[in-house]
Amino acid sequence: MDRVGPDLESDPVAEAGRLADLARDRGLRLRVLGGTAFVMRLPRPVARPPGSGKDIDLITLREDRRAIAALLASEGYQPDKHYNALNGHRQMYFVDPRRGRPVDVIVDRLEMCHRLELRDRLGVDYPTLSLADLLLSKLQIVELNRKDVVDVLALLEAFALTVDDATGINVDRVSAVTSHDWGWWRTVTGNLDSLLAFANQLSAKAAAVPGRIDSLRAAIETSPKSVGWRIRSRVGDRMRWYELPEEVDHD
Questions:
Q1: Which pLDDT band, with edges at 50, 70 and 90, does 82 fall under?
Q2: 75 within 8 A of 22, measured Cβ to Cβ
Q3: Among 131, 125, 112, which residue's Cα sits nearest to residue 29?
């Protein structure tokens, strides 16, 4: 019998971790992203806007998606069958019927304002995406909201910039993405410039943040750019360099 409601963790952070553990125990690849992942990784709570943090966002690989769908169903999550039938190759949607808690499961890549390929990155960290990929997931948003700004600044306060994924934010990963695609570069650097203004207003406890933003910006600028990047840069802002994510209604 499916386990509905009472067996699901009330705390979305605990529930996301539980689902990741269940998938790992079955040899499936599932990682947490989105706001829940930031809460998991940050060493201390941050003041996020009211109502945020209810949803759970997960990512898996295409070869594991059917097994992940079966796992969620066995745990009491109800699928949006119509949406999943049409879009399951790239994203699936479920809901906890008791708590009204949505669960989005993306497949292989995050597609919002830009495309972030993640197939080769799910094994880097656990239970969330790597710190660098979490940072990119926010910096690719053309219009950052308050929650996004809070998450990015908190991540940059908590973790140093590094050249690997083991102990901090992997600068090489960020630079690789922005050096291949001019649109990515344009959005990320624009956001870093805007975030610097916020960072300069932070308390003394976050004194490292402006310097980390400057260092990340410098690493992005000095990283060698691809041929495609250089060609696209000639067009610049005359052509839109990002996508507009669509809002989707679910059954």
A1: very high
A2: yes
A3: 125
